[in-house]
Amino acid sequence: MIKKILIANRGEIALRVQRTAKKMGIATVAIYSSADAQSAFAKQANQSVLLPGTQLSETYLNIEAVIAAALETGADAIHPGYGFLSENALFVEACTKAGIIFIGPSAGAMRSMGNKIAARDCATNAGVPVTPGITGTTDELVKSYGSIGFPILIKAAAGGGGKGMRVVENESDFQLALEATAREAKNYFGDGTVYIEKYIAKPRHIEVQVLGDQQGKLLHLYERECSLQRRHQKIIEEAPSLTLSTEVRERICRAAVALAQSINYYSAGTMEFLVDESLNFYFLEMNTRIQVEHPVTELTTGIDIVEQQIIIANGESLPFNQSEIRQNGHAIECRIYAEDPAQHFLPSPGILKYYQEPSFEASSLLSNAEILRIDGMQLQTGDTISGDFDPMISKVIVWAPSREEARLAMLSALQQYAIKGIQTNIEFLSGLLQHTDYIQNRISTKYIDQNLETLMAQLQQTKKQVDIILPLAAALAKSLSANKNQTLNIWQSIGYWRHCATMDMLIDGEPVTIDIVQTSPFVLKYHNQERKAEIRHINGIHYSLLLDDVPYPVGIYERRTGTYEITLNGMTHTVVRPDMSYVDGEIFEARSGTAGKGGSITSPMPGKVIKLHVKAGDTVKRGDPLLVVEAMKMENNIISTKDAIVKEILVKEGDKVDTTMALVELSE
Prior knowledge:
668 residues, Dna Ligase, domain 1, D-amino Acid Aminotransferase, Chain A, domain 1, 8-stranded antiparallel barrel
């Protein structure tokens, strides 16, 4: 029996594995880099081992160091989580050589599916349909890509997690995209091999969870809908899929099991498929590990997938048969990312000035028949979101008897999620969940990328449609109630409305004039209508606003004196009381973009320079790529802001940069 598991991962998935191990009475060992020394996963394990070094190759990707940590602590098994070494066959072999149980599939099965080219061959041999494509060296692909026809999808053979993947719409972009994908593949996966395939119009991304034991039993846990993605990375997943008919569901699940059986697969794995508008499905890839989105399957089947991974690795048989597995209700998962959707999802690392996760206690909209689950890093106010790792902060998962009930429960949960100090996608997710296209399931893997500008415009329109008396009343009620309990100067304490009942305010930058009728109880007048307002504290920055005795759940965060961020229906409104002085408390933060002062080019986010496209003396045009900055596992092209000559290159490949540093100097 496995007695101690070393978790070769970090953050959310490390805590997730710890939770099941504790339930099973198994001790855990955490490995961590110096950047993660204060992280919850490192502190909550039974033992923790520091991996020296600052680069991923020295820490979480260092096979020798991970094996040594397991031997040093007496761990008899290793769980790889997802990412990092989870799909590295050499790591599996190293575990076996050291006498350590690898909680996952065999090295052979991993090799069969870990390389997308080999996986396509396996699928074809198993009778599972695949999309038309070409494999070969980079030079061979350059010569033969024309037979596929545009648009083309270029993919890293050893890729995963949406990395090492680019869509090319026309011939002029092909060469640059091929080189960038190969470079990204080499950086992330240690293998620069790529292949190309036909890009299907408006595809759905459907995946099937499989489980197999070492005795040969192989089962499926049904499907997940993972079509809502940005940059080929999922942000909303759900189970079951509304897209599939009963007949197609049965066929796609059978195909997944057949393909897994063809390579004698055991442990948890996921078969990913593209489904076209006619419900034809094509094998995409297999992830030979646990998936980020596994919780929606756990909540709809009642099966703890991590527990089954451990049972299988222990050599035990799966304790159930296919006929016993049922989908029940509906689950939705939202990935919370440190990124700015308004800036094409630019990563947003930084310090958390306030952090509060949703809970049942804070919501009157969540019923006892529903489940709310947070898989996160157990972050706290004051923690730092590093730019060295993936931008995912946490996952919010809800379960309810129906999809509509689950959707409403998720909206309530997102309303309660408070993250201040960095940009996140919470408001964007709320907008998506309220969009008629999501409600009516009119989505595809391209939906967000193709409709981003429209979605952002509609998000702003949704915010403008709110009855502005709600955020105004919440901000005023909070500021006036706060004044009763604070020692303020005479002007802040009195407020000019005592001398003049009219108050000028700003909401989302727009001027608004209201009248203060009385303060106890608080009554205000807007558009000649008097409204009584009261706020009741729930927890953290969550309140119930009673407007004329009708309750509204709101979040009220005072960003600085007199400036309030009011969250209502998942949307955040900024309300300012100009009469309250906040200059003394102002924090002036550096703002950056691709253009700095004069002719200097700066980075819009902290990161690392991984590629220089130009040298001093080169002539560039507006929009030409100058260099590539990697942040939070994303490559970001820094482009020229004008037609110019490159005067000086101020950084070199491998340099870490922030938003204040000049990277390139341009001259007229």
